[in-house]
Amino acid sequence: MKTSYMKLRGSQYFRQRLLLSTLSSTPILVEDIRSESASPGLRPYEVSLLRLLEKISDDCTVEINDTGTKLRYKPGVLIGGKNVVHDCGLSRSVGYFLEPLIVLGLFGKRDLSIRLKGITNDCKDPSVDTFRTTTLHILKHFGVSLDGLELKIESRGAAPLGGGEVVLVVPIVPNNLSATTWIDEGMVKRIRGVTFSTRVSPQFGNRMVFSARGVFNRFLPDVHIFTDHRSGQSGGRSPGYGISLVAETTAGCLISADMAVSHPKTEVDALMNFEEKPELMSPEDVGTQVASMLLGEIEGGGVVDSSHQGLLFLLCALCPPDVSKVRVGKLTPYSIATLRNIRDFLGVKFVIKPEPTTNTVILKCVGCGLKNLSRKIS
């Protein structure tokens, strides 16, 4: 039987298209992947993501042409798996791979337990701390039990040399997700957070905590920020530091912001020569900046922060054919693209209604009713 492929162009939203293609069992043909670029074709982290999908599914086929500008991907059956190990490489952090994994893990044949190696905290992708404190908790609003769902940070790795390791465990959903009405934001009642520091003075953590608290203490007494200083083996191979903050509201919403500072890739040679280290942002500035970012996210409104909108919409679309209704702040360009991709792959359309009084947006959809067909029928 001839496979019919959905035709797509370009490298935009590559990860999301692969995720939706896998969930909806839609084979895709992607052409013109950075064909105009000075270095055309798929990036190492995108190839790594394809290899990861091969590891957790059975019978999936990946064909890439010589220049890497054309890809045929035919999804297989998600099998999950115990003790899977994947090296994420050093061009993107572990966060890039975690988001598709937590969704795919729910729909596997068996529970997924996977060890990811690479960079745990960088400035591009959400940090592993944000995943642990915020992202995983979004699933409980869709009827996923948090028992057994965990992310362990065994060692940290800052850019450019990484060296971090995390273990993600995602149990499968027995039948399907449940539709949600999640529009009550509540008021912020407490702030929690964690700083990380690797191969720098342990004092860096305290300095970030002190400056972040300086911003919040004017508004709210209940602020606890923990410090996680790693040295030796568990501190990875590069110096770095950063902070991840979460605001918890009276309605149980978690709003997060994070940031990491480390030497850029090009400085690997300069790191060997201690005189030439470029100046990095001070721990005080990092603490103040992330605290301000978090206040901005809170002010934006919505039940999740802007970086989690896409995941929220995807989970709504995967629910049974029942109405889900959620409130978010201003839609980000990535979220708008997510809504388009959901329409193309799952056939789910959202009704979008702005609320001018609160500057938030209410979105409603009827889920596509994705069932976990790969799990064993007992």
Automatic annotation (TrEMBL):
- PROSITE patterns attached to this UniProt entry: RTC
Q: Does the keyword Nucleus apply?
A: yes
Q: Where is the RNA 3'-terminal phosphate cyclase insert domain?
A: 184-299
Q: Which GO terms describe its biological process?
A: ribosome biogenesis
Query: Can you give the residue ranges of the RNA 3'-terminal phosphate cyclase domain?
Result: 8-352
Question: Do the record's keywords include Nucleus?
Answer: yes
Database matches in InterPro entries: RNA3'-term_phos_cycl_insert, RNA3'_phos_cyclase_dom, RNA3'_phos_cyclase_dom_sf, RNA3'_term_phos_cyc, RNA3'_term_phos_cyc_type_2, RNA3'_term_phos_cycl-like_CS, RNA3'P_cycl/enolpyr_Trfase_a/b, RPTC_insert
Cite the CDD domains for this sequence.
RNA_Cyclase_Class_I (cd00875)
In terms of one coarse class, where is the protein primarily found?
Answer: nucleus
**What GO CC annotations are associated with the protein?**
nucleolus
Q: Where in the cell is it found?
A: Nucleus, Nucleolus
Q: What keywords tag this UniProt record?
A: Nucleus, Ribosome biogenesis
Q: Which family does it belong to?
A: Belongs to the RNA 3'-terminal cyclase family. Type 2 subfamily.
Q: What's the protein name?
A: RNA 3'-terminal phosphate cyclase-like protein
Source species:
Dendrobium thyrsiflorum (Pinecone-like raceme dendrobium)
